[in-house]
Design a protein that fits this description.
Layout: H1 5-12, H2 51-55, H3 68-73, H4 80-91, H5 98-106, H6 112-116, H7 123-137, H8 142-154, H9 158-174, H10 176-183, H11 185-189, H12 191-199, E1 212-213, E2 221-225, H13 230-234, H14 236-248, E3 251-254, H15 264-268, H16 272-286, E4 293-296, H17 299-305, H18 308-311, H19 319-328, E5 329-331, H20 332-339, E6 350-354, H21 358-361, H22 368-375, E7 380-384, H23 398-401, H24 403-419, E8 424-427, H25 430-447, E9 453-456, H26 457-465, H27 471-474
Parallel strand pairs: 2-3, 2-4, 4-5, 6-7, 6-8, 8-9
Antiparallel strand pairs: 1-3
Helix pairs in contact: 1-5, 14-26, 20-22, 24-25
Length: 476
């Protein structure tokens, strides 16, 4: 079977010795030693990895047990501090090699290291700066270019994703998807495409939202709502539930009909210009919406939208508008707690396991808010998942580009979820929903057990507010 690039690179290299001198810490960084200049080594002078931020890393190792790739492989260069060392080498004159890029590509961008770091190292900024450099200067293989081209010609385009729904529903209803999977042919010939097919969720009916939804009772706030790309096409029920809950809690909901992708996938993959173009278009779409908050129900999207001020700081026509836009962006759990509950919560007699989406917990620092919303529901019991800080392996498009390590992480996450004894897994990101669903289904098949129910946080709250039966969450 063809191996994914991360596995090929990991097996082909031995980095235990690194490049240090005997008796010295090979990872020690003196900011004064870090050079700059046009293509002085791996990076050009357009926003290279920040030397001062690199110098913040004291290589204490607190990040190691939270880094998914280090946990899997135990290799120093596949840890945050190892990648920071490679960034330093690139600034000091080392060329951008396939091996160096392999270590950067292997990073999931989960930001668990940012949470764990006692020194406040801004690894999130460093890896995004580095990936933009990689995309500008590294020549990828023809197969890698083709796969990335397919991904980015599809996933950030809501209309194209909606066109996929028809053929995908036919495959699912006829069982053709399962038949193809049983042959194993696609996995042998194109494991990345096989991973993409296995991740596709079971599709229900489309639920387009109107441009304006009026609050029930006295209006408390006017909010704009992002419908998203994957969320809108593959999880329309999550958007519908979000609108219903906001309406029940006294919000007028504005849904700009010309909105598109927020740019998160592109920004996280280093496709900087593409990400900026998406961001500017979204700012335009919400310009005249007249809203007090912009509500997001997808963790990765919210993380990027909150950083539009930095992303578009060098765009004269957008810098101020992007800053105002970013100031309005909130995860839906933040808005609901800000408002406080008004609609009655009906009991849900269920035990759930709550999975922290990385870009919600680590990138946005939102952990308590969704837990508070869930535990306020009468009858609901929340269980914490062991190794909660370890990514599930979704990480945007990582589980397509690197299916083997992503599956290892997914299986690890599924086993930890099952240990909780919960009946329902709840999370707040479409990528996590797809990845963890596939992992839990695989676990159930291997162990002869019943697949676990899956739901977005807002779907659970919606079921409680509207008195829906538990089966609406459990039957997927």
């Amino acid at each position: 079977m063809t191996q994914d690039p991360a596995t090929q690179r990991r097996e082909a290299t031995n980095v235990d010795g690194m490049a240090g001198t005997q008796g010295a810490d090979p990872l020690a960084v003196d900011p004064a030693d870090v050079l700059g200049g046009p293509r002085a080594g791996a990076f050009d002078e357009k926003s290279p990895p920040d030397a001062a931020l690199i110098g913040d890393c004291v290589h204490c190792g607190f990040c190691l047990p939270t880094c998914p790739t280090y946990v899997l492989w135990g290799e120093e260069m596949d840890s945050p501090r190892g990648r920071i060392y490679l960034m330093k080498e690139g600034l000091e004159g080392e060329p951008m090699t396939d091996e160096m890029v392999g270590h950067f590509d292997a990073c999931l961008g989960c930001m668990a290291c940012v949470t764990a770091c006692p020194s406040g190292v801004q690894y999130d900024t460093l890896i995004e700066q580095t990936r933009a450099q990689v995309e500008r200067h590294h020549e990828r293989s023809a197969s890698e270019k083709a796969l990335r081209g397919l991904i980015f010609s599809l996933f950030p385009h809501p209309k194209r994703l909606r066109l996929m729904r028809g053929p995908l529903k036919v495959m699912q209803r006829t069982g053709l998807d399962r038949a193809v999977r049983r042959t194993g042919l696609l996995e042998r010939l194109a494991p990345q495409l096989a991973a993409m097919e296995k991740l596709a969720p079971r599709l229900g009916k489309a639920m387009p939202l109107p441009a304006h939804i009026t609050a029930i009772g006295e209006r408390r706030m006017t909010v704009g709502m992002l419908v998203g790309c994957v969320q809108g096409a593959f999880f329309p029920g999550v958007n519908a539930a979000t609108a219903r809950v906001l309406r029940a809690e006294g919000c007028d909901v504005v849904v700009p009909q010309d909105q598109g992708c927020c740019g998160a996938l592109s920004v996280h993959a280093g496709r900087e210009d593409e990400g900026k173009a998406f961001a500017k278009a979204l700012v335009d779409a919400f310009d005249d919406a007249g809203v007090e908050r912009i509500v997001v129900n997808a963790a990765g999207c919210g993380s990027t939208m909150k950083e539009y001020a930095e992303l578009l700081a060098d765009e004269p026509a957008y810098a101020d508008r992007a800053r105002r836009f970013a100031e309005l962006v909130r995860d839906v759990s933040e808005v609901l707690l800000e408002l406080g509950p008004r609609a009655e919560r009906h009991p849900l007699d269920v035990t759930i396991a709550y999975h922290d989406a990385c870009h919600l917990a680590h990138a946005q620092g939102i952990r308590k808010q969704p837990r508070d919303l869930l535990t306020d529901i009468p009858g609901l019991t929340l269980k914490e998942i062991p190794e909660a800080e370890i990514c599930c392996g979704s990480a945007g498009i990582y589980n397509i580009l690197h299916p083997e390590p992503a599956q290892e992480l997914g299986d690890r996450k599924a086993a930890n979820i099952v240990k909780t004894g919960a009946e329902l897994l709840v999370t707040a990101n479409p990528g996590c929903l797809m990845q963890v669903t596939a992992s839990l289904d695989r676990h159930a098949e291997q162990n002869g057990s019943r697949p676990m129910g899956m739901a977005h946080t807002i779907e659970v709250l919606d079921a409680s507010i509207h008195g829906a039966p538990l089966s609406t969450l459990m039957d997927r």
